[in-house]
Amino acid sequence: MPFLKKPLQITAGAFARTDSLRESLDNFLTMYLNTPKGNFIPDPEYGFVFTGLRFELFDEHSGTVYDSKGGNDPIYDKKISGTSRNLQTFAADFNEYVRNNESRLGSVSTVMTYIREQRQILLVVRGVMIQTDEPYEYRTLINVWN
């Protein structure tokens, strides 16, 4: 079954496609992660809120983002490092989106770890590709607070 390639490309008058389920899942997660929440007009809830927090105040010891505007947004109660089992982390938010919107992936778990020395966040998503019953892992580093 061919999947759309991302970024979208037109080849011979049609959208380019890939037969790789793994590549398609990687593209799906990358696109969601790199789309700031609220920037996709047809669905303002689409996108990962974390991309908009890069220039907020960040406590490297507790892994908490502080609201520089002094509001009461519950997103600022969340921690960077943690697993999808800990509901007060950005990993849980990412994991929930994947579970609810990517039916090709089952048994999803997500871990985000702040690497203080590199000022990067390691995001790891694990699961099982439903169609092939093979294990799946997505890893990426996010540069933050440079």
Question: Explain this structure to me?
Answer:
By secondary structure, the chain is of the alpha+beta class. It has a single domain (3-143), classed as Nuclear Transport Factor 2, Chain: A (Roll). 18% of the residues lie in helices and 32% in strands. The chain is built from 2 helices and 10 strands. The chain has helices spanning 21-34, 90-101; strands at residues 3-4, 10-11, 14-15, 17-18, 57-59, 64-66, 82-83, 105-115, 120-129, 134-143. The strands form 4 sheets. It has a 4-stranded antiparallel beta sheet with strand order 7-8-9-10, with helices on one face. A two-stranded antiparallel ribbon has the order 1-4. The longest helix has 14 residues, at 21-34. It is globular and about 50 Å long. The model has no long low-confidence stretch (mean pLDDT 80).
Q: Helix count, per DSSP? A: 2
Named CATH topology: Nuclear Transport Factor 2, Chain: A
The major β-sheet equals:
4 strands, antiparallel
Per DSSP E runs of 2 or more residues, the count of β-strands stands at 10
The stretches of 5 or more residues where confidence is low (pLDDT under 50) are none
The CATH first-level class comes to Alpha Beta
Structural class: alpha+beta
